[in-house]
Amino acid sequence: MTITLKDIHEAAQRIKPYIHRTPVLTNKSLNEKVGANVFMKCENFQKVGAFKFRGASNAVWSLTDEEAKLGVCTHSSGNHAQALALAAKMRGIPAYIVMPNNAPQVKKDAVAGYGGQITFCEPTLEARESNLERIKNETGANVVHPYNDERVIAGQGTATLELLEEIPDLDVIIAPVGGGGLLSGTAIAATETKRGIRVIAAEPEMADDAFRSMKEKKIIPSENPKTIADGLLTSLGTLTFPIIQERVEQVVTVSESAMIESMKFIWERAKIIIEPSAATVIAVLWEKKIELTGLKVGVILSGGNVDLGKLYW
Amino acid sequence: MTITLKDIHEAAQRIKPYIHRTPVLTNKSLNEKVGANVFMKCENFQKVGAFKFRGASNAVWSLTDEEAKLGVCTHSSGNHAQALALAAKMRGIPAYIVMPNNAPQVKKDAVAGYGGQITFCEPTLEARESNLERIKNETGANVVHPYNDERVIAGQGTATLELLEEIPDLDVIIAPVGGGGLLSGTAIAATETKRGIRVIAAEPEMADDAFRSMKEKKIIPSENPKTIADGLLTSLGTLTFPIIQERVEQVVTVSESAMIESMKFIWERAKIIIEPSAATVIAVLWEKKIELTGLKVGVILSGGNVDLGKLYW
After folding, report:
1. Reported confidence tier of residue A106, pLDDT bands at 50, 70, 90
2. Is residue B62 in some structural domain?
């Protein structure tokens, strides 16, 4: 099944009443520092603090009333769980979330706070998948995968539609890559809306499975990644990888220190809170591994969920 | 001399090309937490990271070309020094800044970075004033006081014009009070634009000179205040106090812990960086010392300049 620009436009219409249209911010100090004109699409201001709410909302509101009644389900320990729980709550349907029992208390509380019905399991992929399968069979709920799902990919692409509506003459768009949902949605929306626009992925060096997958032309699983960008630990999906191969110019890896420096710079100068995963896109500009001088560069600041108790500097 | 709404409108026109029109943000979690509809005027996104740039710009651009050639001068260790230096730089004129030699290095660097010509002196009010007097006599530069100056007060009031343009039906506006420049500009702009609007000042309990001044009907100097709100240490001025007496309903004092909790909440939930002085306005809602339930409350988030090396929680 192919995801088209039409799917993303339909997603945008579908989720419009429920999501925030997030602002596009610029910052003079940042532009001077990196030598480019940077336009920051602030998904850190999105509901639940991350772009994930777009894809989850599109999945939830794509269901027929009959399907919706039975609810949605997923396994996730992160932002997707919160996003799906809130989207389901807004439609008034149940959300069944399988979470590993070692998930941080703050995330468990957040999912429960949005009305998600949590099933705890052992922290292995097998336990998560088998519990999800059981819940799906018991409830008839619709499974919404965090990234390997057409509805989710189309939903994530809506951020780029909004960005290009405001800044139509971007030369480049940079998005972070974990499982590839945001990146593939971004890539379809960008390249189908504007011929010749370059799409670049930002990935931590310490979790460089997408970089290696592109090189080897097959999905290389992420193995034991150790990065502060805790939103980018997963491997590419069977749906997202081909889209990325087709439409993304390259994956640029960034160091942990560049992420930390970029993140601090954005907090200090732009006065907004971004999480490490979001800082990867600034870090690409920061480290100047590729030449972007003088270009108009859109970046997707994917989220702003950080633990303010432990800072990285 | 009386400052009128017309002065503030003229200031707004004068400084419009140079300042940021800052956004007005809302946050559902905050509204639920405090039980009011809160509209945050984000002067933390203003140039130099604080509303101070409005007043400084209005002063600088009010000068005739002849006056301007000789430059501007002030004594300040804080945001006003940076604001005046940048405003002067944008007009291409000199700014002479007297700073106490114990000012933090980061502030010295910032003023120098904006092209301010710094004279260091002993950290006493006498040394600061005598050095300023000498520089004024030597250079002919125009003195721009941080708050006790009509041009500065009118400039600070422009934030409220913008806020009321976007949200005309506010019931209340809350602004922090230190020297009273922001508060008096806010009060004139608000009460002259909208009959019956309530203007409330937020002040740290640990620096409650404005609260006491209102009670005693005379300016009580701030003595050795110990608060994390380092922008609110100064005493009221002879120009600002009468305006505040006439137009501000009351000064509400807030605890240090309420400021810290409010600040953390805004960082975590609204994903924006505010400084302790700005958190006072949220703290008024947080502590619920006065009844604002269900009202539409505008708050001026005065600035976002914090040292990310030392957090307060």
Report:
1. confident
2. no
> Which residue, of B109, B140, B171, is where some domain finishes?
B140
Chain A contact for B51, CB < 8 A? Answer: no
Domains contained in chain A, number: 2
DSSP helix/strand/coil, B42: strand
Same domain, B182 and B221: yes
Question: What is the 8-class DSSP label of residue A177?
Answer: -
pTM metric for this prediction = 0.93
Measured between beta carbons, which residues in chain A are less than 8 angstroms from residue B267? 273, 308
**Would the pLDDT of B1 be above 90?**
no
Whether the CA torsion A131, A134, A135, A136 is positive or negative: it is positive
Mean pLDDT over the full length of chain B: 95
Q: Which residue segment(s) compose the domain that A115 sits in? A: 71-140
Distance CA B260, CA B283 (A): 9
| Cβ proximity of A214 and A271 under 8 Å | no
Residue A313's pLDDT band (cuts 50, 70, 90)? confident
Q: Residue A1 pLDDT more than 80?
A: no
Residue of chain A nearest B270, judged by CA positions: A45
B245, B215 Cβ separation under 8 angstroms: no
Contacts of A270 in chain B (CB under 8 A): 45
Shortest distance between the Cα of A311 and any Cα of chain B, in A, equals 9
Q: In this predicted complex, what is the ipTM?
A: 0.90
In this predicted model, what pLDDT tens digit does every residue of B102-116 receive, in sequence order?
A: 888 888 998 999 999
- Tell me which residue of A96, A145, A283, A114 sits closest to A203, measured CA to CA: A283
Which of B40, B166, B271 has the highest number of chain A CBs within 10 A, making it the mutation to test binding with A? B271
Q: At what angle do helices B240-247 and B209-216 cross, to 10 degrees?
A: 70
